[in-house]
Amino acid sequence: MRALVITNDSTVFLKDGLCSAREMFGGRVSEVRNFCDRLSSVCDVSFGLISGRFGFVPGEYTVMPYQEITDTPAAYYQLQERKDYAGKINFVSRPFDVTIAFVPKAMMAILLDNDAFTRKVIAVTGDEFREEFKKRGWSWHNRSGARIGKANADAIMDEVKDMAKSAKKAKRPSCGASS
User: pLDDT digit string (tens) for 32-54?
Assistant: First the structure.
């Protein structure tokens, strides 16, 4: 099973020069990075970041410090207009079984309005999305903490473990098939 974990950038830069997007940011991104490390014990995990300068970038993409931090709803919309991060997430997420999103509610609205998600979604975001997620058969968790919160992280881990078990059972070879 494969999971794509996405979040947005932070104002806390850990490096002065070039490095991967995954390693560049501290602050709220640290909690998500630690969650990815934990999740990797359950499934294959890829990390992506919505950057104020570059739009959506894979975690291994090389970036440098920059000034263009998006931290308001207006900035999220301007970034979408400039970089189409929702379209890039739509494309990149296709081979993944689940996308796990830790983004502010205004950014989640943009992602939903622009059909960024192609498969199952698990998200920690605003309460206003609870019904929409339920209607789509997705999992919604109320935001608590800097980005995820311990209770949400534990619940998402359990959900992904269940998904991984189901995927493994579904891929068992049928009678007569070689293993």
Answer: 989 999 999 999 999 999 988 88
Residue 96 burial by CB count (10 A; 0-12/13-18/19+): exposed, middle or buried? buried
- Between the CA of residue 147 and those of 1, 47, 87, what are the distances in Å? 24, 15, 23
pTM of the model: 0.88
Residues 19-35: pLDDT tens digits?
Answer: 777 787 767 788 898 99
Residue 176 lies inside a defined structural domain of this protein: no
CA–centroid distance for 32 within its chain = 9
CB–CB of 157/42 below 8 Å?
Answer: yes
Total tally of structural domains belonging to the chain: 1
Encoded tokens for 146: 């800097």
- The letter for the amino acid at 123 is A
Q: Alpha-carbon distance 177 to 175, whole Å?
A: 6
From CA 105, how far away is CA 115, in angstroms rounded? 15
Helical (H) or strand (E) element with 123: strand 120-125
CATH of the domain at 91: 3.40.50
User: Is the residue at 179 inside a domain?
Assistant: no
Q: Which residues span the domain enclosing 79?
A: 2-167
- Residue 101 structure tokens: 């999103």
Residue 159 resides in a domain = yes
